[in-house]
Automatic annotation (TrEMBL):
Organism of origin: Seonamhaeicola marinus
Protein name: Biotin-dependent carboxyltransferase family protein
Keywords of the record: ATP-binding, Hydrolase, Nucleotide-binding, Transferase
GO MF annotation: an example: transferase activity
Keyword Repressor: no
Amino acid sequence: MIKVLSTGIYSTIQDFGRFGVQNYGIPYSGVMDKQSASFSNAILGNPIDLPVMEITMLGPKLQFETKTRICISGGDLSPKLNNNPIFNNKSILVETGDVLSFGKLNRGFRAYLSVQGGFKTENVLGSYSMYQDITPKSRVEKGDILKIASFKDNGMRANASIKVTDTHLDTTKIDVDKGPEFDQLSEDQKKYLLSKTFSISKDNNRMAYQLNEVLENTLEPIITSLVKPGTIQLTPSGKLIVLMKDCQTTGGYPRVLQLKTAAINVMSQKYTGQMVSFSLDMY
């Protein structure tokens, strides 16, 4: 068990997402940065899709009521165990009563905490991913007691075969494909979209990232159509909205670009004021 002493900004339990129910309007959800979450699990010898805690910007304070091993990957949020600094991407033995806390955000935006054997919160519709009105809670709350797998001491200190790459935390390049309505844009609009550097607005969360700069929009609204994580919509006002893991399943705005899978990892590690640019192959 893990007791939540404080929550941080926004912490949730996530796995790889909820599939096969989008026709009911239920989002995919799941970890925003799949690469970092996968490393965190793999270093502990877990299957890479086991539930982890996704931690945004400011971490929680957690007390372990049982012995286990943990690993933190993704953003550097200055983690400490019993007030002693610890490193990301390491298998760390935690004893009963130990307290994990976080401090200053140094790099990235989201970190992933895995425990040996995974978190054992409630599975709803085939996933442990928290989402409002789908799971009993939409985020981790102070006082929560989180179930985790029973500890089996296999003597493992780290998985030496795992080579962690986290350059996506720093890159500003967002690789994209054409969206269904991309070719309806004028050549000037396409050039602007693919040559401009855009800044992340204050409106960014697990549902979507809005960008500050405006692309003049002359397109007609579309019939409500399918969207998915990574879809970039162009609103009537010219705002660009990058849909993320908790996004809706349909939308009526033109879909001008689509983030590649790895680019969603990159975008998820950005926050207000940071810059990104879009890269489209063969254009």
